[in-house]
Amino acid sequence: MPYISTRGAAPVTAPEAIVRGIGPDGGLYVPTSLPRLTRADFAALALLPYPARAARALALLLDGFSEDELLPMANAAYARFDTPAVAPVAALTERRYVLELFHGPTLAFKDMALQMLPHLMTASARKTGETREIAILTATSGDTGKAALEGFRDVEGTSVTVFYPLGGVSAVQEKQMVTSRGKNVHVAAVKGNFDDAQTGVKALFADPAFARDMASLGKTLSSANSINLGRLAPQVAYYLSAVADLLAQGRITWEEGVNICVPTGNFGNILAAWYAKRMGAPIRRLICASNRNDVLTDFIRTGVYDRRREFHKTISPSMDILISSNLERYLWELSEGDCAQVRSYMEQLKIEGAYTLNEMSKVHMRSAFFGGFADDGATAAAIRRAWVRERYLADPHTGVAFSVSEDYRRETGDATPLLIVSTASPYKFSADVAAAIGVPVPEDAFDAADSLEQATGVPAPQAVKELKSLPVLHTRVCEKDGMGRAVLDGFADSQ
Ligand SMILES: *Cc1c(COP(=O)(O)O)cnc(C)c1O
Predict the structure, then answer these.
(1) Mutate to test the pocket of ligand 1, among 111, 223, 266 (most ligand atoms within 8 A of CB)
(2) How far is residue 364 from each of residues 257, 300, 325, 340, 368, measured CA to CA in Å?
(3) Which residue, by CA, sits nearest to atom 8 of ligand 1?
(4) Best substitution site from 107, 111, 143, 329 to test ligand 1's pocket, by max atoms within 8 Å of Cβ?
(5) Angle between helix 229-248 and helix 50-61 axes, rounded to 10 deg
(6) At 368, is the pLDDT very low, low, confident or very high (cuts 50, 70, 90)?
(7) Is the pTM value of this prediction over 0.85?
(8) If pLDDT is split at 50, 70 and 90, which confidence band does 171 have?
(9) Of the chain's two ends, which shows fewer C-beta atoms within 10 Å, N or C?
(10) CB-defined site of ligand 1, < 6 Å
Protein backbone atom coordinates (compact mmCIF):
# COMPACT_ATOMS: atom_id res chain seq x y z
CA MET A 1 0.00 0.00 0.00
CA PRO A 2 1.48 3.38 -0.96
CA TYR A 3 1.25 6.45 1.26
CA ILE A 4 0.50 9.73 -0.39
CA SER A 5 0.87 13.33 0.66
CA THR A 6 -2.43 15.09 1.31
CA ARG A 7 -1.27 17.83 -1.07
CA GLY A 8 -0.55 15.45 -3.93
CA ALA A 9 3.22 14.72 -3.93
CA ALA A 10 4.32 11.37 -5.37
CA PRO A 11 3.50 8.23 -3.32
CA VAL A 12 6.12 6.78 -0.97
CA THR A 13 6.52 3.63 1.13
CA ALA A 14 5.83 3.62 4.89
CA PRO A 15 9.55 3.70 5.82
CA GLU A 16 10.08 6.67 3.47
CA ALA A 17 7.11 8.50 4.97
CA ILE A 18 8.50 7.95 8.48
CA VAL A 19 12.02 9.12 7.61
CA ARG A 20 10.74 12.21 5.81
CA GLY A 21 8.15 13.14 8.42
CA ILE A 22 6.32 15.52 6.08
CA GLY A 23 5.72 15.56 2.32
CA PRO A 24 8.00 17.69 0.10
CA ASP A 25 4.92 19.81 -0.67
CA GLY A 26 4.18 20.41 3.02
CA GLY A 27 1.41 17.80 3.03
CA LEU A 28 0.94 14.95 5.52
CA TYR A 29 1.36 11.31 4.54
CA VAL A 30 -1.84 9.26 4.60
CA PRO A 31 -2.49 5.56 3.95
CA THR A 32 -4.37 5.06 0.68
CA SER A 33 -6.35 2.11 2.02
CA LEU A 34 -7.11 0.69 5.44
CA PRO A 35 -7.33 -2.94 6.52
CA ARG A 36 -10.60 -4.06 8.11
CA LEU A 37 -10.76 -6.06 11.35
CA THR A 38 -13.55 -8.49 12.19
CA ARG A 39 -15.16 -9.27 15.51
CA ALA A 40 -12.94 -12.37 15.71
CA ASP A 41 -9.86 -10.20 15.17
CA PHE A 42 -10.80 -8.08 18.19
CA ALA A 43 -11.36 -11.22 20.29
CA ALA A 44 -7.90 -12.47 19.29
CA LEU A 45 -6.33 -9.08 20.06
CA ALA A 46 -7.76 -9.12 23.59
CA LEU A 47 -5.81 -12.30 24.35
CA LEU A 48 -2.44 -10.67 23.65
CA PRO A 49 -0.28 -8.52 25.93
CA TYR A 50 -0.20 -4.84 24.91
CA PRO A 51 3.10 -4.86 22.96
CA ALA A 52 1.86 -7.76 20.84
CA ARG A 53 -1.40 -5.90 20.17
CA ALA A 54 0.60 -2.86 19.08
CA ALA A 55 2.87 -4.94 16.84
CA ARG A 56 -0.15 -6.49 15.14
CA ALA A 57 -1.87 -3.12 14.63
CA LEU A 58 1.31 -1.52 13.30
CA ALA A 59 1.94 -4.37 10.87
CA LEU A 60 -1.55 -3.74 9.46
CA LEU A 61 -0.99 -0.01 9.10
CA LEU A 62 2.65 0.16 8.00
CA ASP A 63 3.48 -1.80 4.86
CA GLY A 64 7.05 -3.01 4.84
CA PHE A 65 7.08 -3.91 8.54
CA SER A 66 6.21 -7.44 9.65
CA GLU A 67 4.57 -8.32 12.95
CA ASP A 68 7.63 -10.42 13.89
CA GLU A 69 9.93 -7.50 13.27
CA LEU A 70 7.71 -5.05 15.20
CA LEU A 71 7.24 -7.19 18.30
CA PRO A 72 10.73 -6.72 19.80
CA MET A 73 10.45 -2.98 19.06
CA ALA A 74 7.11 -2.77 20.87
CA ASN A 75 8.43 -4.84 23.76
CA ALA A 76 11.32 -2.41 24.18
CA ALA A 77 9.12 0.68 23.69
CA TYR A 78 6.52 -0.26 26.29
CA ALA A 79 8.88 -1.81 28.86
CA ARG A 80 9.31 1.54 30.59
CA PHE A 81 5.60 1.97 31.35
CA ASP A 82 4.49 1.70 34.98
CA THR A 83 1.79 -0.92 34.30
CA PRO A 84 1.99 -4.10 32.18
CA ALA A 85 -1.41 -3.18 30.70
CA VAL A 86 0.38 -0.09 29.19
CA ALA A 87 -2.92 1.55 28.20
CA PRO A 88 -5.43 0.28 30.81
CA VAL A 89 -9.16 0.99 30.77
CA ALA A 90 -10.63 2.07 34.13
CA ALA A 91 -14.36 1.86 34.86
CA LEU A 92 -16.37 4.81 36.24
CA THR A 93 -20.13 4.73 36.83
CA GLU A 94 -22.98 5.00 34.27
CA ARG A 95 -21.29 2.95 31.56
CA ARG A 96 -18.39 5.37 31.38
CA TYR A 97 -14.78 4.25 31.06
CA VAL A 98 -11.41 5.97 31.02
CA LEU A 99 -8.60 4.97 28.66
CA GLU A 100 -5.45 5.90 30.56
CA LEU A 101 -2.62 6.87 28.25
CA PHE A 102 -0.27 8.45 30.77
CA HIS A 103 1.62 5.49 32.19
CA GLY A 104 4.81 6.13 30.20
CA PRO A 105 8.07 7.75 31.39
CA THR A 106 7.00 11.38 30.75
CA LEU A 107 3.45 11.00 32.11
CA ALA A 108 1.46 12.02 29.03
CA PHE A 109 -0.04 10.15 26.09
CA LYS A 110 2.75 11.29 23.77
CA ASP A 111 4.87 8.43 25.15
CA MET A 112 2.52 5.91 23.54
CA ALA A 113 3.88 6.94 20.14
CA LEU A 114 7.20 8.55 20.99
CA GLN A 115 8.64 5.53 22.79
CA MET A 116 7.90 3.57 19.60
CA LEU A 117 8.90 6.18 16.98
CA PRO A 118 12.70 5.94 17.44
CA HIS A 119 12.53 2.19 16.75
CA LEU A 120 10.41 2.81 13.66
CA MET A 121 12.70 5.65 12.60
CA THR A 122 15.99 3.72 12.80
CA ALA A 123 14.43 0.68 11.11
CA SER A 124 13.02 2.94 8.39
CA ALA A 125 16.42 4.57 7.84
CA ARG A 126 17.90 1.09 7.38
CA LYS A 127 15.16 0.07 4.95
CA THR A 128 15.49 3.22 2.84
CA GLY A 129 19.30 3.21 2.83
CA GLU A 130 19.45 6.53 4.67
CA THR A 131 22.94 6.83 6.20
CA ARG A 132 22.93 10.50 7.24
CA GLU A 133 22.12 11.41 10.81
CA ILE A 134 18.38 12.03 11.21
CA ALA A 135 17.92 15.38 12.91
CA ILE A 136 14.51 15.47 14.52
CA LEU A 137 12.97 18.94 14.84
CA THR A 138 9.91 19.26 17.00
CA ALA A 139 7.62 22.01 18.24
CA THR A 140 5.82 21.26 21.47
CA SER A 141 2.83 22.61 23.33
CA GLY A 142 4.36 20.95 26.40
CA ASP A 143 4.22 17.17 26.29
CA THR A 144 5.60 16.14 22.90
CA GLY A 145 8.90 17.83 23.75
CA LYS A 146 9.80 15.76 26.75
CA ALA A 147 8.44 12.58 25.19
CA ALA A 148 10.59 13.13 22.08
CA LEU A 149 13.68 13.98 24.17
CA GLU A 150 13.16 10.83 26.21
CA GLY A 151 12.39 8.62 23.19
CA PHE A 152 15.34 9.72 21.03
CA ARG A 153 17.90 10.29 23.77
CA ASP A 154 21.18 8.58 22.83
CA VAL A 155 19.54 6.72 19.94
CA GLU A 156 22.39 6.11 17.43
CA GLY A 157 22.13 8.00 14.16
CA THR A 158 19.61 10.55 15.45
CA SER A 159 19.46 13.86 17.27
CA VAL A 160 16.49 15.77 18.58
CA THR A 161 15.86 19.52 18.91
CA VAL A 162 12.73 20.67 20.74
CA PHE A 163 11.17 24.14 20.62
CA TYR A 164 8.63 25.14 23.26
CA PRO A 165 6.74 28.43 23.69
CA LEU A 166 8.44 30.53 26.37
CA GLY A 167 5.98 30.92 29.25
CA GLY A 168 3.47 28.73 27.40
CA VAL A 169 3.99 25.41 29.18
CA SER A 170 3.45 24.26 32.79
CA ALA A 171 6.26 24.46 35.37
CA VAL A 172 6.57 20.67 35.43
CA GLN A 173 6.57 20.42 31.63
CA GLU A 174 9.33 23.03 31.35
CA LYS A 175 11.44 21.48 34.08
CA GLN A 176 11.09 18.05 32.46
CA MET A 177 12.47 19.44 29.20
CA VAL A 178 15.29 21.67 30.44
CA THR A 179 16.67 18.88 32.64
CA SER A 180 16.86 16.36 29.77
CA ARG A 181 20.04 14.35 29.55
CA GLY A 182 21.54 12.73 26.47
CA LYS A 183 24.38 13.61 24.10
CA ASN A 184 22.06 14.18 21.13
CA VAL A 185 19.28 16.28 22.72
CA HIS A 186 18.71 20.05 22.36
CA VAL A 187 16.03 22.31 23.80
CA ALA A 188 15.18 25.95 23.06
CA ALA A 189 12.39 28.25 24.25
CA VAL A 190 10.79 30.37 21.50
CA LYS A 191 9.51 33.88 22.18
CA GLY A 192 6.02 33.18 20.84
CA ASN A 193 3.13 30.76 21.31
CA PHE A 194 2.83 27.12 20.18
CA ASP A 195 1.45 28.03 16.76
CA ASP A 196 4.52 30.25 16.23
CA ALA A 197 6.83 27.39 17.17
CA GLN A 198 4.97 24.88 14.97
CA THR A 199 4.89 27.30 12.04
CA GLY A 200 8.62 27.96 12.54
CA VAL A 201 9.47 24.25 12.42
CA LYS A 202 7.35 23.75 9.31
CA ALA A 203 9.13 26.72 7.69
CA LEU A 204 12.54 25.14 8.39
CA PHE A 205 11.40 21.95 6.69
CA ALA A 206 10.53 23.97 3.60
CA ASP A 207 13.67 26.17 3.66
CA PRO A 208 16.22 25.10 0.96
CA ALA A 209 19.05 27.11 2.58
CA PHE A 210 18.47 25.35 5.89
CA ALA A 211 18.36 22.00 4.10
CA ARG A 212 21.79 22.81 2.59
CA ASP A 213 23.14 23.70 6.06
CA MET A 214 21.91 20.36 7.32
CA ALA A 215 23.33 18.47 4.33
CA SER A 216 26.74 20.07 4.85
CA LEU A 217 26.66 18.74 8.42
CA GLY A 218 25.77 15.27 7.14
CA LYS A 219 22.26 15.45 8.53
CA THR A 220 18.75 15.11 7.15
CA LEU A 221 15.63 16.50 8.82
CA SER A 222 12.67 14.60 10.17
CA SER A 223 9.78 15.30 12.49
CA ALA A 224 8.58 13.74 15.70
CA ASN A 225 5.42 15.83 15.66
CA SER A 226 2.11 14.11 15.17
CA ILE A 227 2.33 14.91 11.47
CA ASN A 228 4.74 11.93 11.25
CA LEU A 229 3.01 8.72 10.12
CA GLY A 230 5.11 6.90 12.72
CA ARG A 231 3.28 8.85 15.47
CA LEU A 232 -0.17 8.20 14.10
CA ALA A 233 0.09 4.42 13.73
CA PRO A 234 0.96 3.60 17.38
CA GLN A 235 -1.95 5.81 18.42
CA VAL A 236 -4.42 3.77 16.38
CA ALA A 237 -3.15 0.69 18.23
CA TYR A 238 -4.42 1.79 21.66
CA TYR A 239 -7.93 2.42 20.38
CA LEU A 240 -8.07 -1.07 18.86
CA SER A 241 -6.69 -2.38 22.16
CA ALA A 242 -9.25 -0.52 24.30
CA VAL A 243 -12.18 -1.66 22.17
CA ALA A 244 -10.87 -5.24 22.30
CA ASP A 245 -10.75 -5.02 26.12
CA LEU A 246 -14.24 -3.50 26.43
CA LEU A 247 -15.69 -6.20 24.15
CA ALA A 248 -13.84 -9.07 25.85
CA GLN A 249 -14.99 -7.90 29.30
CA GLY A 250 -18.60 -7.61 28.12
CA ARG A 251 -18.64 -3.90 28.91
CA ILE A 252 -19.78 -2.99 25.43
CA THR A 253 -21.46 -5.05 22.75
CA TRP A 254 -20.45 -5.29 19.12
CA GLU A 255 -23.90 -4.01 18.10
CA GLU A 256 -24.17 -1.04 20.46
CA GLY A 257 -20.52 0.00 20.28
CA VAL A 258 -18.93 2.89 22.13
CA ASN A 259 -18.58 6.68 21.88
CA ILE A 260 -15.12 8.11 22.46
CA CYS A 261 -14.36 11.55 23.88
CA VAL A 262 -10.84 12.89 23.23
CA PRO A 263 -9.28 16.07 24.64
CA THR A 264 -7.98 17.61 21.42
CA GLY A 265 -5.35 20.10 20.27
CA ASN A 266 -3.58 19.14 17.07
CA PHE A 267 -6.30 16.60 16.15
CA GLY A 268 -3.79 13.71 16.18
CA ASN A 269 -5.21 11.61 18.98
CA ILE A 270 -8.83 11.86 17.85
CA LEU A 271 -7.82 11.22 14.26
CA ALA A 272 -6.30 7.91 15.39
CA ALA A 273 -9.69 7.03 16.91
CA TRP A 274 -11.31 7.84 13.58
CA TYR A 275 -8.87 5.49 11.80
CA ALA A 276 -9.68 2.76 14.34
CA LYS A 277 -13.35 3.23 13.50
CA ARG A 278 -12.60 3.00 9.79
CA MET A 279 -10.70 -0.23 10.50
CA GLY A 280 -13.88 -1.79 11.80
CA ALA A 281 -13.86 -1.00 15.53
CA PRO A 282 -17.46 -0.53 16.76
CA ILE A 283 -16.88 3.14 17.54
CA ARG A 284 -19.92 5.38 17.12
CA ARG A 285 -19.64 9.11 17.81
CA LEU A 286 -16.26 10.83 18.26
CA ILE A 287 -16.55 13.68 20.74
CA CYS A 288 -13.91 16.34 20.12
CA ALA A 289 -13.26 18.22 23.38
CA SER A 290 -11.46 21.58 23.22
CA ASN A 291 -10.52 24.15 25.82
CA ARG A 292 -11.23 27.86 25.33
CA ASN A 293 -9.25 27.69 22.10
CA ASP A 294 -12.45 26.36 20.56
CA VAL A 295 -11.60 26.60 16.87
CA LEU A 296 -12.48 22.91 16.35
CA THR A 297 -15.82 23.20 18.17
CA ASP A 298 -16.87 25.94 15.77
CA PHE A 299 -15.48 24.02 12.81
CA ILE A 300 -17.46 20.88 13.60
CA ARG A 301 -20.62 22.86 14.25
CA THR A 302 -20.45 25.26 11.29
CA GLY A 303 -17.99 23.84 8.75
CA VAL A 304 -15.98 27.07 8.95
CA TYR A 305 -12.38 26.81 10.17
CA ASP A 306 -11.37 30.26 11.33
CA ARG A 307 -8.13 30.77 13.19
CA ARG A 308 -8.58 34.56 13.30
CA ARG A 309 -9.33 34.71 16.99
CA GLU A 310 -7.63 35.40 20.26
CA PHE A 311 -5.17 32.78 21.52
CA HIS A 312 -5.96 31.83 25.13
CA LYS A 313 -3.55 30.37 27.65
CA THR A 314 -5.42 27.80 29.72
CA ILE A 315 -4.82 25.22 32.47
CA SER A 316 -4.70 22.60 29.68
CA PRO A 317 -1.68 24.05 27.83
CA SER A 318 -1.08 21.05 25.57
CA MET A 319 -4.36 21.95 23.87
CA ASP A 320 -3.63 25.68 23.44
CA ILE A 321 -3.59 25.42 19.67
CA LEU A 322 -5.42 27.28 16.90
CA ILE A 323 -3.94 25.49 13.90
CA SER A 324 -4.65 21.77 14.21
CA SER A 325 -2.17 20.14 11.85
CA ASN A 326 -3.66 16.67 11.71
CA LEU A 327 -7.00 17.99 10.57
CA GLU A 328 -5.40 18.06 7.13
CA ARG A 329 -5.49 14.25 7.04
CA TYR A 330 -9.20 14.28 7.83
CA LEU A 331 -9.82 16.95 5.17
CA TRP A 332 -8.16 14.63 2.66
CA GLU A 333 -10.54 11.85 3.69
CA LEU A 334 -13.56 14.20 3.63
CA SER A 335 -12.57 15.34 0.14
CA GLU A 336 -12.28 11.69 -0.93
CA GLY A 337 -8.62 12.04 -1.75
CA ASP A 338 -8.96 15.27 -3.73
CA CYS A 339 -5.50 16.76 -3.08
CA ALA A 340 -6.29 19.94 -5.03
CA GLN A 341 -9.19 20.56 -2.66
CA VAL A 342 -6.93 20.04 0.38
CA ARG A 343 -4.31 22.38 -1.10
CA SER A 344 -6.97 25.00 -1.62
CA TYR A 345 -8.21 24.76 2.00
CA MET A 346 -4.64 25.04 3.31
CA GLU A 347 -3.86 27.93 1.01
CA GLN A 348 -6.97 29.80 2.24
CA LEU A 349 -6.03 29.07 5.84
CA LYS A 350 -2.56 30.46 5.26
CA ILE A 351 -3.59 33.56 3.31
CA GLU A 352 -7.01 34.45 4.74
CA GLY A 353 -6.90 32.60 8.05
CA ALA A 354 -10.09 30.66 7.30
CA TYR A 355 -11.80 28.19 4.96
CA THR A 356 -15.30 26.73 4.62
CA LEU A 357 -16.17 23.10 3.90
CA ASN A 358 -18.65 22.24 1.16
CA GLU A 359 -22.12 21.03 2.25
CA MET A 360 -21.45 17.32 1.67
CA SER A 361 -18.29 17.39 3.79
CA LYS A 362 -20.08 19.29 6.57
CA VAL A 363 -22.77 16.62 6.77
CA HIS A 364 -20.19 13.81 6.80
CA MET A 365 -18.13 15.49 9.49
CA ARG A 366 -21.12 16.18 11.71
CA SER A 367 -22.29 12.58 11.54
CA ALA A 368 -18.87 11.36 12.69
CA PHE A 369 -17.90 14.08 15.18
CA PHE A 370 -19.46 16.15 17.93
CA GLY A 371 -17.57 19.26 18.99
CA GLY A 372 -17.66 20.94 22.38
CA PHE A 373 -15.42 23.01 24.61
CA ALA A 374 -14.84 23.74 28.29
CA ASP A 375 -13.29 26.89 29.73
CA ASP A 376 -11.01 26.70 32.79
CA GLY A 377 -13.94 27.10 35.20
CA ALA A 378 -15.93 24.27 33.63
CA THR A 379 -12.78 22.13 33.49
CA ALA A 380 -12.03 22.64 37.20
CA ALA A 381 -15.67 21.88 38.07
CA ALA A 382 -15.49 18.63 36.09
CA ILE A 383 -12.24 17.63 37.84
CA ARG A 384 -13.93 18.28 41.18
CA ARG A 385 -17.05 16.25 40.25
CA ALA A 386 -14.93 13.32 39.04
CA TRP A 387 -13.00 13.37 42.32
CA VAL A 388 -15.99 13.82 44.65
CA ARG A 389 -18.36 11.41 42.91
CA GLU A 390 -16.04 8.76 41.52
CA ARG A 391 -12.76 9.22 43.36
CA TYR A 392 -11.12 9.63 39.97
CA LEU A 393 -8.27 12.13 39.86
CA ALA A 394 -8.17 13.72 36.40
CA ASP A 395 -5.59 16.12 34.94
CA PRO A 396 -6.90 19.35 33.33
CA HIS A 397 -6.78 17.97 29.76
CA THR A 398 -8.79 14.96 30.86
CA GLY A 399 -11.00 17.39 32.81
CA VAL A 400 -11.89 19.12 29.54
CA ALA A 401 -13.00 15.76 28.16
CA PHE A 402 -15.06 14.97 31.28
CA SER A 403 -16.82 18.32 31.00
CA VAL A 404 -17.55 18.08 27.27
CA SER A 405 -18.71 14.46 27.51
CA GLU A 406 -21.24 15.53 30.17
CA ASP A 407 -22.44 18.32 27.87
CA TYR A 408 -22.71 15.79 25.05
CA ARG A 409 -24.96 13.44 26.99
CA ARG A 410 -27.13 16.33 28.19
CA GLU A 411 -27.41 17.87 24.72
CA THR A 412 -28.06 14.68 22.74
CA GLY A 413 -29.52 12.20 25.25
CA ASP A 414 -27.18 9.63 23.69
CA ALA A 415 -26.60 6.95 26.36
CA THR A 416 -24.19 4.79 24.32
CA PRO A 417 -21.29 3.58 26.51
CA LEU A 418 -18.60 6.21 26.66
CA LEU A 419 -14.83 5.95 26.64
CA ILE A 420 -13.09 9.10 27.88
CA VAL A 421 -9.45 9.41 26.89
CA SER A 422 -7.13 10.49 29.71
CA THR A 423 -4.03 12.09 28.24
CA ALA A 424 -1.88 13.09 31.21
CA SER A 425 -1.14 12.19 34.80
CA PRO A 426 -2.81 14.61 37.24
CA TYR A 427 0.64 15.04 38.79
CA LYS A 428 1.92 16.71 35.67
CA PHE A 429 -0.41 19.61 36.56
CA SER A 430 -0.54 19.22 40.34
CA ALA A 431 -1.22 22.86 41.26
CA ASP A 432 -4.24 23.23 38.98
CA VAL A 433 -5.63 19.84 39.97
CA ALA A 434 -5.16 20.59 43.67
CA ALA A 435 -6.90 23.95 43.25
CA ALA A 436 -9.78 22.29 41.39
CA ILE A 437 -10.49 19.80 44.15
CA GLY A 438 -9.99 22.34 46.94
CA VAL A 439 -6.58 21.31 48.28
CA PRO A 440 -4.49 24.26 49.52
CA VAL A 441 -1.86 24.96 46.87
CA PRO A 442 1.74 25.77 47.87
CA GLU A 443 3.57 28.48 45.90
CA ASP A 444 6.12 26.06 44.50
CA ALA A 445 4.71 23.92 41.68
CA PHE A 446 6.80 20.96 42.84
CA ASP A 447 5.50 21.09 46.40
CA ALA A 448 1.96 21.01 44.99
CA ALA A 449 2.52 17.38 43.99
CA ASP A 450 3.27 16.46 47.62
CA SER A 451 0.15 18.28 48.85
CA LEU A 452 -1.99 16.58 46.23
CA GLU A 453 -0.61 13.17 47.13
CA GLN A 454 -1.20 13.71 50.85
CA ALA A 455 -4.73 15.01 50.32
CA THR A 456 -5.89 12.32 47.88
CA GLY A 457 -3.81 9.27 48.69
CA VAL A 458 -3.30 8.77 44.94
CA PRO A 459 0.43 7.93 44.61
CA ALA A 460 2.54 10.49 42.75
CA PRO A 461 4.80 9.03 40.05
CA GLN A 462 8.52 8.83 40.88
CA ALA A 463 9.35 10.92 37.78
CA VAL A 464 7.57 13.92 39.34
CA LYS A 465 9.19 13.54 42.76
CA GLU A 466 12.69 13.53 41.25
CA LEU A 467 12.12 16.57 39.12
CA LYS A 468 12.54 19.25 41.76
CA SER A 469 16.19 18.45 42.41
CA LEU A 470 17.35 17.78 38.82
CA PRO A 471 19.90 20.27 37.39
CA VAL A 472 18.86 22.55 34.50
CA LEU A 473 20.93 21.64 31.43
CA HIS A 474 19.26 23.72 28.69
CA THR A 475 18.82 27.51 28.74
CA ARG A 476 18.65 28.56 25.09
CA VAL A 477 15.98 31.15 24.18
CA CYS A 478 15.37 32.32 20.60
CA GLU A 479 13.18 34.66 18.58
CA LYS A 480 10.47 33.28 16.27
CA ASP A 481 12.68 33.97 13.26
CA GLY A 482 15.83 32.64 14.91
CA MET A 483 14.89 28.98 15.15
CA GLY A 484 17.19 27.79 12.35
CA ARG A 485 20.15 29.51 14.02
CA ALA A 486 19.19 27.91 17.33
CA VAL A 487 19.29 24.43 15.76
CA LEU A 488 22.76 25.06 14.32
CA ASP A 489 24.01 26.55 17.61
CA GLY A 490 22.76 23.46 19.42
CA PHE A 491 24.75 21.21 17.09
CA ALA A 492 27.85 23.39 17.45
CA ASP A 493 27.61 23.20 21.26
CA SER A 494 27.52 19.43 21.27
CA GLN A 495 30.58 19.03 19.02
C1 LIG B 1 -0.84 16.60 23.11
C2 LIG B 1 -1.87 16.54 24.17
C3 LIG B 1 -3.23 16.66 23.88
C4 LIG B 1 -3.75 16.95 22.49
O5 LIG B 1 -3.56 15.87 21.61
P6 LIG B 1 -3.65 16.11 20.02
O7 LIG B 1 -3.24 14.83 19.41
O8 LIG B 1 -2.68 17.22 19.73
O9 LIG B 1 -5.04 16.51 19.72
C10 LIG B 1 -4.13 16.52 24.92
N11 LIG B 1 -3.71 16.30 26.18
C12 LIG B 1 -2.41 16.18 26.49
C13 LIG B 1 -2.02 15.95 27.91
C14 LIG B 1 -1.44 16.28 25.50
O15 LIG B 1 -0.14 16.15 25.82
Answers:
(1) 266
(2) 19, 10, 20, 19, 7
(3) 266
(4) 143
(5) 130
(6) very high
(7) yes
(8) confident
(9) C
(10) 108-110, 143, 226, 263-269, 318-319, 397, 423-424
